[in-house]
Amino acid sequence: MRFEDLVGQDHVARTLGNAIQTGRVAHAFLFTGVRGVGKTTSARILAKALNCLGDPATTPPGTDPGPTVTPCLKCTACLEIAAGAQARSSYHQGGPRRPRAGPADLLRAEPP
Ligand SMILES: [Zn+2]
User: Fold this and answer.
1) Rounded to whole angstroms, how far apart are CA atoms 30 and 67?
2) How many domains does the chain have?
3) 103 CA distance to ligand 1 centroid (A)?
4) Rounded to a whole number, what is the distance in angstroms from the first to the last CA of the chain?
5) Rounded to the nearest whole angstrom, what is the distance from the C-alpha of residue 27 to the centroid of ligand 1?
6) Cα 48 to Cα 92: distance, rounded to the nearest angstrom
7) In terms of residue numbers, what domain contains 7?
């Protein structure tokens, strides 16, 4: 899934895409909203855009294409993020039934 696949979140896709294209990516993003609006999906698309290694069939080994608004969806990073197993991206889901985490808890939860 890419930014153009986000339904009803054009403003999110446009904002994140512009940030990547201009090289002005913030050090953290906070996605908020009611259940089902696409917070996790948006975060995963952003993670793919920032971590994509390029299509293995067309990207020379050892090169880093850098952040892209059109992640390849085929490289190791894209596949791991899609599966929810990418170590370089993490998200913390909250909600009324989840215990609230403070900054110290979030730092402890970050991968090494
Ligand atoms: Zn990729």
Assistant:
1) 19
2) 1
3) 30
4) 27
5) 20
6) 17
7) 3-109
C-alpha 100 to ligand 1 mean position (Å): 33
Q: Which residue has the tokens 């596949």?
A: 79
CA–centroid distance, 68 to ligand 1, in Å, is: 9
- Assess contact for 46 and 82: CB atoms under 8 A: no
Give per-residue pLDDT as tens, 11-54. Answer: 999 999 999 999 999 988 898 889 888 898 999 999 999 999 99
Domain harbouring 91, CATH code:
3.40.50.300
User: 69 C-alpha vs ligand 1 centroid, how far in Å?
Assistant: 11
Q: 74 or 111, which is more confident? A: 74
Total-model pTM? 0.74
CA of 9 to the centre of ligand 1 (A): 22
